Amino acid sequence: MIGAGAGGLAVAARLAAKRHEVTVFDTADRVGGKLYTLRRDGFAFDTGPSLFTLPAVYRDLFMHTGPPLESEIDLQECEPGFAYQFGDGSRLELPGSSMGRTVAAIGDQFGPSAGESWRELMRRAADIWRLTRTNVLGTAIRGRRQLMSLSRPRDLRTVAPWRSLHDMGTDALTDSRLVTLLDRYATYSGSQPRKAPGAFITIPYVEATFGMWHIGGGLGNLADALCRRAEKAGAQFRLGTGVRSIDTCNGAVTGVVTDSDEMVPADIVVSDVDSRRLPAMWGDDASSTQTDSYSGFAILAAVAGTTDGLRHHSVWFPADYDGEFTDLAAGRPVADPAIYVCRPVDPQMAPPGDEAWFILVNAPRHAPDAPDGHDWSDDAANERYADDVLDLLARRGMDIRHRVRWRILQTPFDLGLRDGSGDGAIYGTAAHGAMSVLHRAQNIGPVRGLFRVGGTAHPGGGLPLVGMSAEIVAEEIGRA
Ligand SMILES: Cc1cc2nc3c(=O)[nH]c(=O)nc-3n(C[C@H](O)[C@H](O)[C@H](O)COP(=O)(O)OP(=O)(O)OC[C@H]3O[C@@H](n4cnc5c(N)ncnc54)[C@H](O)[C@@H]3O)c2cc1C
Q1: What is the pLDDT of residue 160?
Q2: Interatomic CA distance for residues 311 and 51, integer angstroms
Q3: Which atom from ligand 1 is nearest to the alpha carbon of 470?
Q4: Run of H or E including 20
Q5: Angle at Cα 175 formed by Cα 170 and Cα 181, nearest 5°?
Q6: Which among 61, 244, 273, 452 is the best mutation to test ligand 1's pocket, defined by most ligand atoms within 8 Å of the CB?
Q7: Strand 43-46 and strand 404-410: pairing?
Q8: Does the C-beta of 400 come closer than 6 Å to ligand 1?
Q9: Of the N and C termini of the chain, which has fewer Cβ atoms inside 10 Å?
């Protein structure tokens, strides 16, 4: 197993439980990859995932490998789910679960027709989820024929792979603020709303149907729980040991070579590293033609005092949300970004009377050598950009500038160093176009005995899909 991110840990646990001899290598001296809670001076910040959805995927893993998920982590439902503020100053607060209550909340705050239009869209999302959960998202894609299960004209019209998320939203929703809200889900895979498939409407459907969750003490505790489970099942961890290359012979893997030149034989190699970086590990330098996904720029702020009325998850949209995607497509930091804040009410995550704020905006990947790329390694420029983000937040009605005790910045450059991607593109390639599912790095091959798991492989990024990719890979490998 190369990489102990969420996907790598999940495969390791599943395969060890299937009696494989598993060794997990990670360059880092800790497990979790992007799934990590940074702790300092009594404050704790989820520096990657801060929202846990579809816990059923991980429930399944824990159930198949030992005691249940709930015995390992403190799963807490977020209620309410998200508070949104739009460019015109209007607000929308949505519950943490229940489609009925979500529709009612939209109806109450934006008017009955807006609520109804959301309900209709979410009915379609339910159909798409039913059609794709097992046959597309829950299975290894071996080629176009696989998608034939969707070839019944009615099903195809429902999924409409040729429609973008944005188009589906503008057609169905009567209130432009809901289109803005829906567009944001494209960024859950680092993509453009006008290019991401309409099937992304399943993301808010999954949130409302299966709930939004926090993990007591921070989501990083899930990584530790997965690691404990894998170890208990017999997996060995070699942290601080990176894999430099994958050895192959006659088109099949024979093992890996570590950074310290140790050859470790293996008949199966599972990679959790960024799929764009993988081919180089067996000497293939073919470059991908796919668009790289976006990254994120975060401010981890230790905030003095408490904030009345602030929810666990909040988003402040700009007046012109399209401008965010124009800037991202041009490779420049977003001048007027949507600002996401995660401020858990969790006594394990801040000293009494203070708050830990994770403030995130979408950002282009670190690409100092690309013609229009941005260099995120300039500390002074990063500090100025962080000031700009806090100024914007103040202008949108949430001024914490005088309350910040200290802050840590996490740029695309930092992400790229930490997860081995080099550029911090969180999801590897973007999910753009009708056939994006076929263009994503597949779970099997291309070399015999090699498997790919994680957020840059099929079916995609985010903890639920990463957990599904681990399930697919473990099923494909089978029992020892
Ligand atoms: C800022 C941010 C916010 C996010 N928010 C959410 C959210 O709210 N909800 C959600 O569900 N998801 C969210 N995500 C996405 C989610 O974090 C990822 O999709 C998921 O954690 C990726 O897991 P992975 O298995 O791909 O491994 P990664 O986390 O990418 O880990 C890969 C591991 O491989 C190791 N590695 C790399 N190269 C080598 C090598 N050569 N040898 C050995 N080891 C190597 C790295 O050290 C790393 O530990 C967010 C991500 C970020 C960055």
Answers
A1: 87
A2: 13
A3: 25
A4: none
A5: 75
A6: 273
A7: unpaired
A8: no
A9: C
Which residue minimizes the CA distance to atom 5 of ligand 1? 49
pTM for the model stands at 0.97
pLDDT of 155 reads 87
Q: How far is the CA of 279 from the centre of ligand 1 (A)?
A: 18
pLDDT of residue 275: 92
Other Cβ atoms less than 10 A from the Cβ of 1: the count is 31
Our answer on whether the CB atom of 33 is closer than 6 Å to any ligand 1 atom is yes
Cα of 151 from ligand 1 centre, angstroms? 34
**How far apart are the C-alpha atoms of 461 and 450, rounded to whole Å?**
20
pLDDT at 142: 83
62 membership: H or E segment, kind and range: helix 56-65
Give the pLDDT mean for 202-207.
Answer: 97
Tell the burial category of 177 from Cβ atoms under 10 Å away from its Cβ (0-12, 13-18, 19+): buried
Burial of 97-106, coded b for 16+ CB within 10 Å and e otherwise, reads bbbebbbebb
Residue 341 has which token pair? Answer: 């804040």
Ligand 1 contact, 35 CB (< 6 A): yes
pLDDT digits (tens, 9 = 90+) for 52-64: 999 999 999 999 9
Mutate to test the pocket of ligand 1, among 29, 278, 340, 419 (most ligand atoms within 8 A of CB): 419
Q: Which residue has the tokens 């990254």?
A: 295
Mention every residue, 6+ apart, whose C-beta is less than 8 A from residue 436. 196, 197, 430
- Of 34, 57, 271, 366, which is best to mutate to test ligand 1, by the most ligand atoms within 8 angstroms of its C-beta? 34
Token digits of residue 353? 């009377």
Q: Is 463 in the pocket of ligand 1 (CB under 6 A)?
A: yes
Q: What value does the mean pLDDT take over residues 274-283? A: 87
Structure tokens, 229: 């489970």
Bond from prior residue into 193 cis (ω within 30 degrees of 0)? no
Residue 310 contacts residue 343 (beta carbons within 8 Å): yes
Q: Cα(33) to centroid of ligand 1, in Å?
A: 5
- 36 Cα–ligand 1 center, Å: 9
